[in-house]
Amino acid sequence: MSSDEGKGGDPMSLAFAEARSAELRGETPIGAALIRDGTVIASAGNRTRELADPTAHAEMLVIREAAARLGSERLAGCDLYVTLEPCAMCAGAISHARLRRLYYAAPDPRGGAVDNGPRFFQEPTCHHAPEVYGGLRESEAAAMLKTFFAARR
């Protein structure tokens, strides 16, 4: 995980930089950045293989780091930028962290849980739903993932 040191640009560009770094480590190229008041609190790419941890998704890593840095499990006023629609596990963490907004690039028809699959934030059991904005730089994220998985086959 890294902070905003040495990284410029908008939050989604930072998430894409983290996705590219993850790919270089042999991880699925998914990256995330968590922002509050225009300041990067945390950024990370997937580390499930490196850490041998199925929960080490980019979103989970930035939520954990931000909670530790801010000293609170509630991340009200924070926005999450991620290169792929979050899965059910990550959507649950986003809800529990009380994130204000979620911005994601590519939808994930197979594993996504925000606008696909279970649509976690629309469930009556969901305690908090962030504002959701999908499709930001969608084709770029989709191409990155497609290239990654094609090379693995």
Topology overview:
Blueprint: H1 11-24, E1 31-36, E2 39-45, H2 48-51, H3 58-70, E3 78-84, H4 88-97, E4 101-106, E5 131-134, H5 138-152
Parallel strand pairs: 3-4, 4-5
Antiparallel strand pairs: 1-2, 1-3
Helix pairs in contact: 3-4
Strand order of the largest sheet: 2-1-3-4-5
Give me the count of strands.
5
What's the oligomerization state?
single chain
Fraction in beta strands: 15-25%
| Major sheet details | 5 strands, mixed
Termini distance? 28 Å
Judged by helices, strands and strand pairing, the structural class is alpha/beta
Rg from alpha-carbon coordinates = 14 Å
User: Order of helices and strands, N to C?
Assistant: HEEHHEHEEH
Written account of the structure:
This protein has 153 residues and is an alpha/beta fold. Helix content is 37%, strand content 20%. It has 5 helices and 5 strands; from the N terminus they run H-E-E-H-H-E-H-E-E-H. It has a 5-stranded mixed sheet. Helix 4 links the parallel strand 3 and strand 4. Helix 3 packs parallel to helix 4. The longest helix has 15 residues.
List keywords for this structure.
153 residues, 5 helices, globular, 5 strands, 20% strand, five-stranded mixed β-sheet, alpha/beta
In short:
It is built from five helices and five strands. It has helices spanning 11-24, 48-51, 58-70, 88-97, 138-152; strands at residues 31-36, 39-45, 78-84, 101-106, 131-134. The chain has a five-stranded mixed sheet with strand order 2-1-3-4-5.
